């Protein structure tokens, strides 16, 4: 299994059992930021049903071709589906596909980005065990927070941990047993409203209480901005705006700064993020 051998690359996994929290959008922005800094990247899309990240990257290639643009595009891999009739054997075969992919991609890449589906699947669990960094985007909502822990409705004290936290705990145990370094779990708030609200403060307060208890880093993420939704059909990110001739607004500049902060918060080794960018 890949997580038993020495790993060369950083494996950044975007995971959250809940759909629609911004995993694929954030993954795309991280991938393109890393490419722009010259890192060698491979992408594995584990969301075989929605394939948002794959579709995003396909849109990028088509747009670049159509408009004769030299946009950097990573290699994207979709896992084959096992044809085995038995569920347990199918899961085992697909787990082997994933570990073999990572084993093969590891020596020739600086970073492997894995985008997970918004549900609990054996492959997503395996991805958590393979990860060096797990990024979990969370919207500013107690509904989203409920996948991490339950909260007292009157005091907002943190009660029982929820299933997703248990899943990550299990992955950490597996890594420790395999002698791997600890998983860096980052909970990132996504779609943060720009106006102050009681809800926003309360979610912030609960996450601050929780981070010591279940060992995650809590980082500010991306604000709620329409640009994140608009860029998908062209396969573009905030990183590409200048290259494609967009005049930056104040909102674009603020958004690019948020993305830069997020990249810094990933705490990737200097050698990964400070390389000479390669052409497409
Ligand atoms: N920061 C953001 N601001 C505005 N819309 C966003 C932001 N992040 C994601 N979205 C939108 O939220 C929806 C879900 O995002 P997506 O990345 O597909 O989530 P997931 O991969 O977790 O299912 C999409 O419509 C996407 O365009
Ligand atoms: Mg997705």
- List SSEs in N-to-C order: EHEHEHEHEHEEHEHEHHH
Structural domains: how many: 1
Number of strands: 9
**Assembly type of the shown chains?**
single chain
Mean pLDDT: 92
Q: Largest beta sheet, briefly?
A: 7 strands, parallel
**What's the arrangement of strands in the largest beta sheet?**
3-2-4-1-5-8-9
- Under the CATH scheme, the architecture is 3-Layer(aba) Sandwich
- The amount of beta strand, in percent, is 15-25%
| CATH hierarchy class name | Alpha Beta
Gap between N and C termini: 32 Å
- Contiguous uncertain segments of 5+ residues: none
What's this model, at a glance?
By secondary structure, the protein is of the alpha/beta class. It is 42% helix and 16% strand. α1 packs across α2 and α1 (23-36) crosses α9.
Considering the chains and any ligands shown, give keywords for the structure:
binds magnesium ion; two-stranded antiparallel sheet; binds adenosine-5'-diphosphate; seven-stranded parallel sheet; Rossmann fold; alpha/beta; single chain; 280 residues
């Amino acid at each position: 299994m890949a997580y038993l051998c020495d790993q060369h690359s950083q494996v950044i996994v975007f995971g959250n059992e809940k759909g629609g929290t911004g995993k694929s959008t954030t993954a795309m922005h991280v991938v393109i930021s890393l490419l722009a800094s010259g890192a060698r990247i491979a992408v594995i899309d584990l969301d075989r049903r929605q394939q948002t990240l794959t579709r995003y990257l396909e849109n990028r290639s088509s747009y670049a071709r159509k408009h004769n643009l030299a946009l950097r595009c990573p290699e994207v891999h979709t896992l084959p589906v096992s044809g085995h009739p038995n569920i347990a054997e199918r899961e085992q075969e697909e787990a082997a596909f994933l570990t073999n992919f990572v084993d093969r991609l590891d020596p020739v890449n600086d970073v492997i980005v894995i985008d997970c589906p918004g549900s609990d699947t054996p492959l997503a669990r395996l991805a958590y065990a393979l990860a060096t960094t797990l990024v979990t985007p969370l919207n500013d909502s107690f509904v989203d927070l409920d996948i991490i822990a339950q909260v007292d409705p009157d005091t907002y004290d943190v009660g029982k941990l929820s299933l997703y936290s248990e899943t990550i705990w299990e992955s950490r145990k597996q890594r420790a047993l395999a002698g791997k370094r600890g998983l860096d779990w980052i909970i990132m708030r996504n779609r943060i409203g720009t106006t102050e609200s009681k809800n926003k403060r309360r979610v912030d307060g609960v996450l601050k209480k929780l981070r010591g208890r279940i060992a995650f880093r809590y980082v500010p993420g991306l604000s709620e901005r329409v640009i994140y939704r608009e860029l998908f059909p062209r396969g573009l990110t905030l990183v590409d705006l200048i290259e494609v001739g967009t005049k930056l607004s104040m909102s674009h500049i603020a958004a690019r700064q948020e993305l830069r902060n997020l990249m810094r918060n990933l705490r990737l080794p200097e050698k990964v993020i400070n390389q000479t960018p390669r052409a497409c």
